[in-house]
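Narrative summary of target 7.
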Amino acid sequence: MTRRALVAVLGGSAALLLVVVVGCVGAAIRAVGNDPGDTSECRESVRAEEAKVRTKRWDPPEELPGLGDYLEIHWQVRSLSGEPCGRAPGPVDWAYQGVVRLRPADARTLAQRYDFVPYAPAEPDQAPLTSPADAWPALAPFLPAAPRWLHSRAYDEATPATRWRTAFLDVEHRTLFFTLQDH
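Modeled conformation, tokenized:
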């Protein structure tokens, strides 16, 4: 290849590389840039989704083992950390809370299988991070009026442990309160 041809090829390649780099930088700036309209709409949408009380059965059911064919469920989701409306990539952790009405036999079986014991707030380092007292306002009406909460570390740590889980059971009222968090 002649020197002139080599210079032409290298010059063309450099020009093409410059166009690609400038295009990528421009696209990144547009993607990361804050369009107040988009962010505002996104945040309103996230708030609306967080306010919803869902009644759809929990999926996957394995994340809440041993509940049987429960009668009803009410649950919510909230952004725990991260920016769900941010354009920059990054993880968003989600927290879930729910109240499940169990069949009487399933509530008794659950209590026995996972060795649920009376819940009394213990030493701070022994207590779960959340309890039914921390229920989100929209879920509070689904909790029993005078509960006798039981707690089980075995249930909290049961397989699968794909999410951080805490659960409280009231056998008399056939109610399970749970919290799940992505990590």
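DSSP finds four helices and six strands in the chain.
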